[in-house]
Amino acid sequence: MALPHAQSGQIVSVRPLGARLLETTTAAILKAGQLEVMRVVLDAGKSMKEHQTPGEATVLCIEGVVEFLSEDGTQQLQPGDFVHLAPRALRSLRALEPASLLVTLCLKPAG
């Protein structure tokens, strides 16, 4: 069963999951005209293969440690780290430990 997306004005928690992290799966929070927001949950060793999106994107590490690979090289995202990505920028993620991330996607390129 699909979870409902957040409605305009609805408060949604993106706090760390803590002990619930290992039992939680990736879920969309919002999908609207040009914007998609999701909580991506990765278990240690799991990855999100290399991909790109037509519009800009952001990634905020909420908890855990994630290896972030982009055209600029490999970096580690730790809790509180935030990265912005230009349209069509290639990237991939690999969890070094169980992690959750807040990912925001602009579904359409600017212009």
Topology overview:
Elements: E1 27-31, E2 35-42, E3 47-51, E4 57-63, E5 66-70, E6 73-77, E7 82-85, E8 91-95, E9 99-106
Antiparallel strand pairs: 1-2, 2-9, 3-8, 4-7, 4-9, 5-6, 5-8
Number of separate strands: 9
CATH topology of the domain at 37-106: Jelly Rolls
Indicate the overall shape. Answer: flat
**What is the arithmetic mean of pLDDT?**
91
Quaternary organisation of the protein chains: single chain
Broad structural category: mainly beta
| Major sheet size, sense and barrel closure | 5 strands, antiparallel
DSSP summary: helix tally: 0
Distance from N terminus to C terminus (CA atoms, Å) equals 36 Å
* Rg computed from alpha carbons, rounded to a whole number of angstroms: 14 Å
Helix content: under 10%
Widest sheet: strand ordering? 1-2-9-4-7
What attributes does this structure have?
single chain; 111 residues; mainly beta; Jelly Rolls; four-stranded antiparallel beta sheet; 0% helix; flat
What can you see in these coordinates?
This protein has no helices and 9 strands. It has a domain at about 35-105: Jelly Rolls (Sandwich), CATH 2.60.120.10. About 0% of the residues lie in helices and about 45% in strands. The chain has about 110 residues and is an all-beta fold. The strands form 2 sheets. A 5-stranded antiparallel sheet has the order 1-2-9-4-7, with no helix packed on it. Strands 3-8-5-6 form a 4-stranded antiparallel sheet, with no helix packed on it. The chain has strands spanning about 25-30, 35-40, 45-50, 55-65, 65-70, 75, 80-85, 90-95, 100-105.
